[in-house]
Amino acid sequence: MARRPRLAALLGGGLALVAVSAQASDHSARFNYMLRCAGCHTETGEGLPHAGIPQFPGYIDAFAADDEGRTYMMHVPGVVGSSLSDAQIAAVLNYVVKSWGDPSIVAPFTAEEVTTRRAKPVPDVVAYRRQLVTRLKAEGAKIAEYPWP
């Protein structure tokens, strides 16, 4: 008989976990950023430039306001492997621009745009970035440090 209360307590804890999981499935853009992006780009968006993780403040607009830059952003390994839906990716990118960019010069990302840009083949994301950065720098854009060749 003593096992039933323990079993009930265990089941009760399991039910609480289910309730928490149900609430957690409705993540906000900030929560998704913190969970899936902050490990590399940090909570403050400062990145880890020495490790090849660019910072966002002062630099994200160059990519987010550019057509090819927006495509590049959809093919960054962290975005590709994020397991987020296209709508959630759009929300996180809008959070990044709102937090560390200038939303007045960057069009908001939409789920449809994310779907379209993710479908565009980018076989070598580093080469794509290199080409993009060369053009952006020639146009006078400020680009974050990135130690990869």
Order of helices and strands: HHHHHHHHH
Percent of residues in β-strands: under 5%
Contiguous runs where pLDDT drops below 50 for at least 5 residues: 1-26
Number of domains: 1
| Classification by helices and strands | mainly alpha
CATH architecture: Orthogonal Bundle
* CATH-level-4 superfamily name: Cytochrome c-like domain
**Which descriptor suits the 3D outline?**
globular
Overall pLDDT metric: 84
CATH topology tier name: Cytochrome Bc1 Complex, Chain D, domain 2
Outline the biggest β-sheet: none
- Termini gap: 68 Å
Give the number of DSSP strands: 0
CATH class: Mainly Alpha
Helix content: 55-70%
Count of helical regions: 9
Question: Nutshell version of this structure?
Answer:
Helices cover 60% and strands 0% of the residues. With 149 residues, the chain is mainly alpha-helical.
Notes on the protein architecture:
- There is one protein chain.
- With 149 residues, the chain is an all-alpha fold.
- The protein has one domain: Cytochrome c-like domain (Cytochrome Bc1 Complex, Chain D, domain 2, Orthogonal Bundle), CATH 1.10.760.10.
- Helices cover 60% and strands 0% of the residues.
- The N and C termini lie far apart (68 Å).
- Mean pLDDT is 84; it is low at 1-26.
